[in-house]
Amino acid sequence: MEKIAIVTDSNSGITQEKAKKLGIRVLPMPFYIDGELFYEDITLTQEEFYQRLAEDADISTSQPSPAEVTGLWDEVLQENDKIIYIPMSSGLSSSCETAMGLARDYEGKVYVVDNQRISITQQQSVWDAIEMRDKGMSAEEIVDVLMREKLEASIYITVDTLKYLKKGGRVTPAAAAIGTVLNLKPVLTIQGEKLDAFAKVRGIKAAKKTMLDAMEKDIKERFAGKEVHLEGAYTCSDEMAQEWKQEIAERLPGYDIVMDRLSLSVSCHIGPGAIAIACSKKIEL
User: Fold this and answer.
1) Strands 4-9, 25-27: parallel, antiparallel or unpaired by DSSP?
2) Is the whole model's pTM more than 0.85, yes or no?
3) CA 89 to CA 236: how far, in whole Å?
4) How far apart, in whole angstroms, are the C-alpha atoms of residue 228 and residue 255?
5) Are β-strands 110-112 and 82-86 bridged in parallel, bridged antiparallel, or unpaired?
6) Where are the alpha helices (DSSP H) in the chain?
7) Is residue 245 helix, strand or coil?
8) Exposure of 89 by Cβ count < 10 A (0-12 exposed, 13-18 middle, 19+ buried)?
9) Which tens digits make up the pLDDT trace of 175-207?
10) pLDDT tens digits, residue range 156-168?
């Protein structure tokens, strides 16, 4: 039986430590902070990242070099027959398209899955791939399922400050200034490949209600009759994250809610203090 390795990138939110426990590999994403190169969870911790963010350092995301990608693949293929690589959505980064090009040189040994997810929904795809592999499915069968299910997920996010959306050009300086004065909280969504505006409300309480309303509607209508995984994510304190988890559980009871920190690539654009809710449809085999 062929030996299949599951590989993802750190945009999934899977840490190097967690990857070891899962028996997978995680490609760390590069960041430039004031011109200096760092790698997520290798030379840059969550704490250091938020400290530099608070210091108003110039932080920008980058994509791994082709040599970094193929170097990891070559290492993994020394002990495996095939690789299923699950990077972040092609709609959010060109790193997926680059990986697809590189995979052509591996003559069917590397499968790059563009299932257009990021963070906790991308992480769920990794868990799904592990489950399917462990059930004895082939690499081709696993990829087919992941691609079939790729858009069956929703994410809603609200931010604590408009500063980082302004910095990234997603809102104008004037809109950010007005929003700050009026305590406006944007609710953003990822339904497939891109981050889009969903609603604009006043205050965190209204933002939470908007996200919970939207998620409840998705579960009842979009995923009617289907089982879903329910997840929460955050760039706020662990204490605030637990409060958010409790609010989700009260509004949407009966789910085993997975909570995780948002990946630094997302955090870079939305800043600290953000919370999110997500769901992904359970795969049907």
Assistant:
1) parallel
2) yes
3) 24
4) 9
5) parallel
6) 16-22, 46-54, 66-77, 95-103, 119-134, 139-148, 163-167, 173-181, 204-217, 238-251, 264-270
7) helix
8) buried
9) 444 444 446 788 888 876 677 788 889 899 999
10) 999 887 666 656 5
